């Protein structure tokens, strides 16, 4: 079926969300591997104060901007590399998605 503007927009938004989630996972995995922590845990937490983060504080890139790059609970600065990696994955996935839509290889 033909790719409409609406269909393309919905797929692009889904791709952006998926890319940012994958980027967030990779930044978390990188941190946990570097400090010899388990990759899969029940909760995400601030490495400085240990406070468990709420769901709103775990939204890739957006929460970093909303919190001015600091932990909501203790104010510790969150390194810029985390949102940059998340944003990079978002751009990468959206680029693949738009390229495949233009070439017609994926719906």
Radius of gyration over all CA atoms, rounded: 16 Å
Distance from first to last alpha carbon: 8 Å
Number of helical stretches of at least 4 residues: 3
Percent of residues in helices: 40-55%
SSE-based structural type:
mainly alpha
* Helix-strand sequence: HHH
Largest sheet: none
Q: Return the average pLDDT rounded to an integer.
A: 86
What is the global morphology? elongated
Identify low-pLDDT runs: none
Observed structural traits:
elongated, 107 residues, single chain, 3 helices, mainly alpha
Task: Report on the architecture of this protein.
- This protein is mostly helical.
- 54% of the residues lie in helices and 0% in strands.
- The chain has three helices and no strands.
- Helix 1 (5-34) runs antiparallel to helix 3.
- It is elongated and about 50 Å long.
- The model has no long low-confidence stretch (mean pLDDT 86).
Brief characterization of the structure:
The protein is mostly helical and 107 residues long. It is 54% helix and 0% strand. The model has no long low-confidence stretch (mean pLDDT 86).
């Amino acid at each position: 079926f033909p790719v409409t503007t609406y269909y393309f927009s919905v797929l692009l938004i889904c791709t952006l969300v998926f890319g940012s989630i994958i980027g967030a996972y990779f930044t978390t995995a990188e941190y946990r591997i570097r400090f010899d922590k388990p990759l899969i845990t029940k909760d995400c937490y601030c490495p400085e104060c240990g406070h468990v983060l709420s769901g709103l504080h775990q939204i890739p890139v957006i929460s970093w901007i909303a919190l001015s790059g600091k932990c909501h609970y203790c104010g510790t600065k969150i390194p810029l590399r985390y949102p940059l990696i998340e944003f990079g994955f978002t751009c990468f996935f959206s680029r693949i998605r738009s390229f495949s839509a233009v070439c017609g290889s994926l719906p």
